[in-house]
Every structure is written in C-alpha cells, then in structure tokens.
Specification:
This protein is mainly beta and 111 residues long. It contains one helix and eleven strands. It is 4% helix and 50% strand. Strands 2, 4, 5, 6, 9, 10 and 11 form a seven-stranded mixed beta sheet that branches. Strands 1-3-8-7 form a four-stranded antiparallel beta sheet, with no helix packed on it.
Length: 111
C-alpha cells in the first residue's frame, strides 16, 4: 500500500518562503513522477507543479518563477519550494503519486 505524507505547511507572511515535503512510501517516483496540487478556499483542486519520472517539470502559470518542484530519489521524497508567497497562495497543498493522494498540508499566507 502506497502512502504519501506531506509536511512543511504553516503560516507565513507575504513575500516569505516555505518548503513542502512529500514522502512516498515504497518506490516508484523515478518511474511514475509526482505532482503537487492545491485547493484554495471555495475553489476546486488545481495542479500546481509536476515532475515526471525522467525529471521534466511543469508549473501552473500562477506559480512559474516562484515555485520549484524537485525530488530526492534516495529518500522517496518530493519537495515544493515556494518563494515570494502571496495571500492568494493560501490553500491546502496535496501531493499526488499515480492515483494516491496525501492528506494535505495547510499553507496560510497572511500578515
């Protein structure tokens, strides 16, 4: 059974940074890739960033240049470095691996 455990969320001021982590139990992130989604209050879940098995990355237009997805294959961990955070980035962030979802981690950007 695959399990995804996210961490790293919290409260940050506008302009600040956070790094989210997603540990994927077992193996396979080098093969299938992983993605980060978010669900903002009152909105549908949306794709934020993804990384394929070969390492190709893709970003939503709203986060390009501010967020970076990366991974550590040895640790089965995927990261989302978030810089220049804005209030509109406030959301629950979810990690997805194949059809598995993590429990989500809350990011709140507020002064």
């Amino acid at each position: 059974q695959v399990q995804l455990v996210e961490s790293g969320g919290g409260l940050v001021q506008p302009g600040g940074s956070l790094r989210l982590s997603c540990v994927v139990s077992g193996s396979g992130i080098r093969i299938y890739g992983t993605a980060w989604y978010r669900q903002r209050p009152g909105q549908q879940r949306e794709l934020v960033a993804s990384i394929t098995g070969s390492g190709t990355t893709n970003y939503a237009d709203s986060v390009k240049g501010r967020f970076t997805i990366s991974r550590d294959n040895a640790k089965n961990t995927v990261y989302l470095q978030m810089n220049s955070l804005q209030p509109e980035d406030t959301a629950i962030y979810y990690c997805k691996f194949r059809w598995y979802w993590g429990q989500g981690t809350l990011v709140t950007v507020s002064s």
